Amino acid sequence: MTVESVKDGASAAAALREPPVAGGGVPVLGHGLRMARDPLAFMSQLRDHGDVVRLKLGPKTVYAVTTPALTGAVALSPDYIIAGPLWESLEELLGKEGVATANGALHRRQRRTIQPAFRPDALPAYGSIMAAESHALVERWRSGEVLDITTESFRVAVRIAARCLMRGSYMDARADRICAALATLFSGMYQRMVVPLGPLYKVPLPANREFNRALADLHVLVDEIIADRRASGQKPNDLLTALLEAKDENGDPIGEQEIHDQVIAILTPGSETVGSTIMSLLLVLTEHPEVADKIRDEVEHVAGDRPVAFDDVRRLTYTANVVVETMRLYPAVWILTRRAVTDTELGGYRIPRGADLIYSPYAVQRDRRSYGRNEEFDPDRWLPERAKEVPKYAMSPFSVGNRKCPSDHFSMAELTLITAAVATAYRFAHAPDSDPRPRIGITLRPRRLMLRALPR
Ligand code: HEM
Fold first, then answer.
1. Can you list the domains of the chain with their CATH numbers?
2. What pLDDT is attached to residue 265?
3. For residue 181, what are the CA distances in angstroms to 175, 177, 200, 258, 332?
4. Neighbours of 314 (CB within 10 A)
5. Which of 22, 80, 119, 201 fits as disulfide partner to 53, beta carbons 3.0 to 4.6 Å?
């Protein structure tokens, strides 16, 4: 590099503009209050202020990215890493050595270890478990019964992730404990992210004690799962075996802490996101009975009288489009954060090294500039000829780039099967204490869904 080119680079950086500050901030708290009060509405209106806008969250400046093209650019650029408030709050749960929070060479090595378990050609081996769990879910229900959909959705999500990726009958007994621990942890994590009052969470208040108990229980559970597998002497072809056999860059076995963190870092996002999406799917089936009827017709057409099976999934195109449209309007991962590791440029704006960025798949996927009748639930917008009209990166519920969810195909298969099984077996109506308003935590989901299962 010549002195001239360094000078050119420096003057180019100096010529870049500062992103505008979003309107509506107030002294001291900046935009924090509005963000805390109604984050979905707040994130959704930011594009009106610019493609990249600066937010003041208390004393901190955060850069919000609002257009599909630029959120894609951030996700694909090596100038940003996983960091920032969301991930810092998750580290306590996910550990520092798991794939979801690691960066750089460690992250690349870990992705190589876990990726084979999620490849499309690995999925058929999970098919019978996914189908059995989908049918077991509806077989637990009775006509006329009021169902607590939060419990039901998270239970099936944990069971499928655990049974497929960490095979073993021991999972049946432990899945419920994992569910209970995760439910407590995820609500506590979100609180720690939006109200970051570190020392307060160490005070032995009942809520903190409950959180710590759940965290300890999850760690014990993971240790038990690993110990049981080792004691069994078995090495089934699954993710747990891949983790136990993984080697570091020197060819040495990876450490115990890393194995432990990896199991947690895969089980937790896998359960929370799928559980939240199943809840949203059940809300859609309740509020759009005509959609549920079309799914039932499709399943009958494809599977006839027999129970729907994994091999049917690729022919359940309408059902899959319902899943996609549900993820568009109710993306479980509604907010993402990154940190700039270098002075860089985004959309003609200067992004300084160390800057925290946020962007919202929820806002991007509901933007009227990308979608006609943007708030309307319309699965047919994913028919191939219409899907072509959707701008690039305007629909990325699994993200893109090197942090893209490894489980996109796995998740689509299980969600399609569950939706098919559920819509074929029952219709649903809200029970009086059902509250479908969004609950905004680390993931987005309906607040409290209590549904009455009605005969088909
Ligand atoms: C990462 C969404 C299901 C494991 C991600 C990311 C998104 C996402 C958006 C990227 C985060 C970022 O860019 O910062 C979803 C959705 C799911 C789902 C919407 C289902 C509806 C699952 C499942 C598993 C899983 C079932 C595992 C069993 C992971 C892991 C990462 C990840 C390990 C971290 C990848 C990395 O950083 O390299 N997911 N996910 N996800 N997801 Fe998923």
1. 3-455 (1.10.630.10)
2. 86
3. 10, 6, 21, 21, 19
4. 11
5. 22
- 348 three-state secondary structure: coil
Name the residue among 229, 235, 225 with its Cα closest to residue 260: 225
Over residues 119-126, mean pLDDT: 92
**Helix axes of 289-303 and 317-329: crossing angle, nearest 10 degrees:** 150
| Separation CA 190–CA 167 (nearest Å) | 30
Report residues whose beta carbon is within 6 angstroms of any ligand 1 atom: 82, 99-100, 111, 161, 165, 265-266, 269-270, 273-274, 277, 332-333, 336, 397-399, 403, 405-407, 410-411
Among protein residues, the one with the nearest Cα to ligand 1's atom 22 is: 270
Please name the residue whose Cα sits nearest to atom 26 of ligand 1: 270
Look at residue 4 and tell me whether its pLDDT is greater than 50: no
Parallel, antiparallel, or unpaired: how do β-strands 146-148 and 344-346 relate?
unpaired
Atom of ligand 1 nearest to the CA of 98: 33
Mutate to test the pocket of ligand 1, among 405, 411, 414, 417 (most ligand atoms within 8 A of CB): 405
Q: Atom of ligand 1 at shortest distance to CA of 336?
A: 14
pLDDT tens digits for range 419-429? 999 999 999 99
Q: What is the pLDDT of residues 345-364, one digit of tens each?
A: 999 999 999 999 999 999 99
Most confident segment among 192-206, 232-246, 260-274, 312-326: 312-326
Q: How far is the CA of 138 from the centre of ligand 1 (A)?
A: 26
Is the complex ipTM more than 0.95? yes
Distance 32 CA to ligand 1 centre (A): 27
**Could you read off the pLDDT of 392-449 as tens digits, one per residue?**
999 999 999 999 999 999 999 999 999 999 999 999 999 999 999 999 888 999 999 9
- Joined tokens for residue 303: 């599977």
Mean pLDDT for the stretch of residues 323-345:
96
Residue 143 burial class via C-beta count within 10 angstroms: exposed 0-12, middle 13-18, buried 19 and up: exposed
Q: What is the best residue among 182, 261, 273, 336 to mutate for testing ligand 1's pocket, by most ligand atoms within 8 Å of CB?
A: 273
143, 128 contact by CB (below 8 A): no
Tokens of 68: 């599909």
Q: What is the C-alpha to C-alpha distance for residues 221 and 359, in angstroms, rounded to an integer? A: 34
Q: What are 171's two structure tokens?
A: 């999972």
Which of residues 227 and 35 earns the better pLDDT score? 227
